[in-house]
Amino acid sequence: MSANADKKPKMPIFRDRLDKLRGDMSYSEFAEKLGISRATMGFYLAGNRVPNAVDLKKIAERCEVSADYLLGMSDAAKAENHEIGYALGLSDKSISKLKRFAENKFSKIALNQILESGKIIAYITNYLFSFLEDERKESRFRYVPLSRNLDRGYADMNLVKLIELLPLWRKDTINQLKAQIPLIDSLLKEYVAKLADVDMCKREYVEFVLYEEPYIPNPDDILPDDFYANIDYEDEYRKEEEYEREEAERRNAIGEILDFISEKRAGER
């Protein structure tokens, strides 16, 4: 077996999704559609090369998909669904279903079936891996390396490695979640609570507003000698008590919402 055959493909999820977009077209036809050379297309589909930024942009625009989908950072292929897919971890198919459910009087029944089917585990897993978005934003090279030659130090190898390992991490995490029912239940409650009707919460509970301390300009970073003498400590103590009381009310409100969700789920069983 040749050395090339033994080499692991670079970013296999990009290769697989690019091949899926190719469909029945030949390499030459697909390369012509995307405005990429036939040889480069062969490297990409063989997993021998990481896409550069220019080619990634061409592929995303001409195939009408998001760059994040091509790199495996989102399961939503359509660019218009990218933000929804990132926020909820949903594929295009799931997003289309949810849009139909929103117009369907039986939507609550349909959504309950989705929750009970176990697919929510995958959605939560995507949510847990949202740290990749932060990693991408911190990268000087954003989505992909700016050079095809990975040996010249232009690539953000940490980001490339994270993307390559993502499918394995997802699989392992899903298996671990399936074996921990209480953890799934807890995550589901947190997940649903985040999507709770904000207007309903405002009607039922006093809106919590974090107290912001006044900004004191001090360009020289030197406080006057009498600075602390002018502080009204009784007023500060009263504000602290008010903050703690409002925080306790907020926690109680969230607890009541979670209890309501638990009782509702128990009653539907």
Strand content bin: under 5%
Low-confidence stretches: 84-90, 104-111, 140-155, 195-211
Domain count, please report it: 2
How many DSSP E strands? 0
Oligomerization state: single chain
State the name of the first-level CATH class of the largest domain. Answer: Mainly Alpha
CATH superfamily of the largest domain: lambda repressor-like DNA-binding domains
| Number of separate helices | 15
InterPro entries: Cro/C1-type_HTH, Lambda_DNA-bd_dom_sf
Pfam families: HTH_3
Organism: Agathobaculum faecis
GO molecular function: DNA binding
Could you outline the blueprint of secondary structure elements for this entry?
Blueprint: H1 3-6, H2 12-22, H3 27-34, H4 38-46, H5 53-62, H6 67-70, H7 82-88, H8 92-102, H9 107-116, H10 120-128, H11 131-138, H12 157-178, H13 181-194, H14 198-204, H15 233-268
